[in-house]
Design brief:
Layout lengths: L6 E4 L2 E4 L10 H5 L2 E9 L2 E2 L2 H15 L7 H14 L5 E8 L16 E8 L7 E11 L14 H12 L4 E6 L4 E4 L3 E6 L2 E5 L9 H9 L3 E3 L11 E5 L4 E7 L2 E2 L12
Parallel strand pairs: 7-8, 7-14, 11-12
Antiparallel strand pairs: 1-2, 1-6, 3-4, 3-5, 5-6, 8-9, 10-11, 10-13, 13-14, 14-15
């Protein structure tokens, strides 16, 4: 990227990165009332924008959050941020909030949504990685919020802190029934009996873009993954649109890393 602080896009305008921009009454800041998408940039191009926009629309429908920008406008904004920051390889963060509003939980019809897009470079990905199974946090598979990218990531943050305390890289989240759901930073891909498997969305897996493409390509199948399978995994990966990381250890159990999903599909 260009010299920091770079530029970002806010409600139709490209601004300097040090510009004051957060309204103190914005519901995204105060209540986590909003959504986000993390979009990969490869060779200067934002990837899979239509897929991200479709998921954003689904989240808006669930939250009853108005989206005043269409796909073409969002694509232009993403390009402006990538170009404005000289971003060739990295990512773009799209953040949508319900916008500034009076105090109280109930949204008002007059709320003006806030849309902000920022760019970032990618840090080197440490791979393979070590993980634990979180004992503190369970994924609520029954909640519709488990199927969207909401701004409230506190359960994932607490699980990630648990992993940090254990001096490992990430944590696997089980659902309330004890089945594997996802990791704090991506979807889970487990190889068992020669097949790559990923948890069902109904078991708490986020409908990730990387996951969706692996399923479409036939490289991965959906399955209910029992926690006991983790100890006998033939291979294990954590993936999102930015990277696919091989897992070498789950708690005290070593996992083979000679066979894994080495790159994201497409």
């Amino acid at each position: 990227m260009a010299d920091q602080p770079g530029v970002f896009w806010l409600n139709g305008a490209l601004l300097a990165g040090d510009a004051s921009c957060i309204d103190p009454s914005d519901r995204g800041l105060l209540l986590g009332d909003g959504l986000f998408e993390t979009i990969a940039v490869r060779r200067g191009q934002a990837r899979d924008v239509q897929r991200h926009f479709a998921r954003l629309q689904q989240g808006c429908a669930l939250l009853r959050l108005r989206l005043p920008w269409d796909l073409a406008a969002v694509e232009r904004a993403l390009d402006e941020v990538a170009v404005g920051n000289g971003l060739l390889e990295g990512g773009l963060r799209l953040t949508l909030t319900r916008g500034p509003a009076p105090r109280g939980l109930l949204p008002t019809a007059a709320a003006r949504p806030t849309l902000m897009i920022t760019g970032f470079c990618l840090s080197p990905v440490a791979s393979p990685v070590r993980v634990i199974v979180s004992t503190q946090i369970r994924r609520d598979a029954a909640s519709p919020l488990s199927r969207i990218k909401s701004l409230n990531y506190l359960p994932n943050i607490l699980a990630r802190l648990e992993a940090e305390d254990a001096k490992v890289d990430d944590a696997i989240l089980l659902n309330q029934a004890g089945f594997v759901a996802e990791a704090t930073t991506g979807n889970i891909f487990l190889k068992r009996r020669g097949k790559w498997l990923t948890p069902f969305v109904s078991d708490g897996a986020l409908p990730g873009i990387c996951r969706e493409k692996f399923l479409e390509s036939g490289q991965v199948e959906e399955a209910r993954i029992h926690a006991a399978w983790l100890s006998s995994a033939e291979a294990f990966c954590i993936g999102n649109v930015l990277s696919v990381r091989a897992v070498s250890q789950i708690g005290p159990i070593a996992v083979p890393t000679t066979d894994y999903l080495r790159t994201g599909p497409g």
